[in-house]
Amino acid sequence: MERDWVDDSEWSNYYDVMWIRGLAKLLVRQIGYALVPMIARGVMLGADQPVILHMLDIPPAAEALNGVKMELVDAAFPLLKGVVATTDAVEACTGVNVAVMVGGFPRKEGMERKDVMSKNVSIYKSQASALEKHAAPNCKLLFRLFFYLTVELIDYLADNRSPKSVLVVANPANTNALILKEFAPSIPEKNITCLTRLDHNRALGQVSERLSVQVSDVKNVIIWGNHSSTQYPDVNHATVKTPAGDKPVRELVADDAWLNGEFITTVQQRGAAIIKARKLSSALSAASSACDHIRDWVLGTQEGTFVSMGVYSDGSYNVPAGLIYSFPVTCKNGEWSIVQGLPIDEFSRKKLDLTAEELSEEKALAYSCLN
Per the CB 3.0–4.6 Å rule, which of 168, 202, 205, 245 could disulfide with 194? Predict the structure, then answer.
């Protein structure tokens, strides 16, 4: 592999990040173009973490991809120690520590869900095979369909922090993560996640606006379930920092009808609302939330704070094991843990079960496409 800017002697000390812009070119270019400068500036992995960025795209986009590489060089980011721009999955995946998978096939007019699922099963099967054979041990993955990125970090593995991560961003993100695991069995289940942090951040923003408080003072909202319109944004355990101490969101809002109705639907449908307003998808916030997800996963969550991540269900909260399901988690030393023991009321139970049912149906559909 050609490694621009970095001598081979230095390569083992860097963290490898790869992103795949994939087939949904307009959306992916938006998210990818927003994301790469954030990574290069240290937003994703810390202000002291040098990175080598791998970028993968389809052959027709090779020239545009090279243009992005030129801009990265021109920006002279101090933390960016190398760039690999390629249309070869093997070259892009070799040695990577963090993979953000954003590329996928979008649903088009007249297509059934199974048609879209079949297309993405094929895409994720090939990418999983490349990661399985060529990524660094313990690679971490984050999924939210429409983007794929890998990063190599310098002096990171030596600290025994989280060496290999995969994030799926492409939709249906939860099920795409499941498919990737099917074809990359050597990657630990705990290293494959999907992005629900965007929905989590949207919920924080809605509470912040409703109460006219700083969003940084709101914490512990939860997104349960699928990254879809069945997701359940839950504020029953959320608090707001006040001069008198942390107060429950539900107590401060004092409007159960809004919290159980408009608040939930606003978060669920926020992406569609942004597309209607911008005529483009929510690229900036998606890129920012991907950085939030990886940063907390790798560097850890703050004490007393939990965040939402789509992770492998172990049966917690009576969610069927084996689904990629969004739970409240805390992160430490590069590992996530599901927050246990939160009380679930009847209203919430129905919401958790509904989104689990949808994920089970998606899983069955995806597996039928494997045959």
Answer: 168
DSSP symbols for 268-283 = HTHHHHHHHHHSS--H
For residue 208, the surrounding DSSP H or E stretch is: helix 197-211
Closest listed residue to residue 33, CA positions, set 70, 1, 6, 58: 70
Beta bridge partners of 194: 143, 310
Annotated binding residue 169: yes
In eight-state DSSP terms, residue 168 is E
Report phi then psi at 257, rounded to 5.
-60, -40
Which contiguous run of DSSP H or E holds residue 42? none
348 or 111, which is more confident: 348
Q: How far apart are CA 266 and CA 162, in angstroms?
A: 35
Is the per-residue pLDDT at 9 higher than 50? no
Cβ–Cβ contacts within 10 Å for residue 75, how many? 12
Q: Which helix (H) or strand (E) holds 14?
A: strand 14-20
Q: Is 61 annotated as a binding residue?
A: no
| Residue 107 assigned to a binding site | yes
Q: Is residue 2 packed enough to be buried (19+ CB in 10 Å), middle (13-18) or exposed (0-12)?
A: exposed
SS3 call for 341: coil
The closest of 217, 265, 226, 268 to 244, measured between CA atoms, is 217
Kindly give the interhelix angle for 197-211 and 283-299, rounded to the nearest 10 degrees: 110
More confident residue, 22 or 128: 128
Which whole number is the average pLDDT over 66-93? 90
pLDDT at 359 over 50: yes
Q: What is the pLDDT of residues 164-174, one digit of tens each?
A: 567 777 667 78
Residues with Cβ within 8 Å of 66's Cβ and at least 6 positions away in sequence, in order, are 85
pLDDT in tens, 215-274: 999 999 999 999 989 999 999 999 999 999 999 999 999 999 999 999 999 999 998 899
Q: Is 220 annotated as a binding residue?
A: no
Judge whether 333 is annotated as a binding position.
no
**57 among the known binding-site residues?**
yes
Residue 282 dihedral angles phi and psi, to the nearest 5°: -85, 75
DSSP assignment of 162-198? ---EEEEEESSHHHHHHHHHHH-TTS-GGGEEE--HH
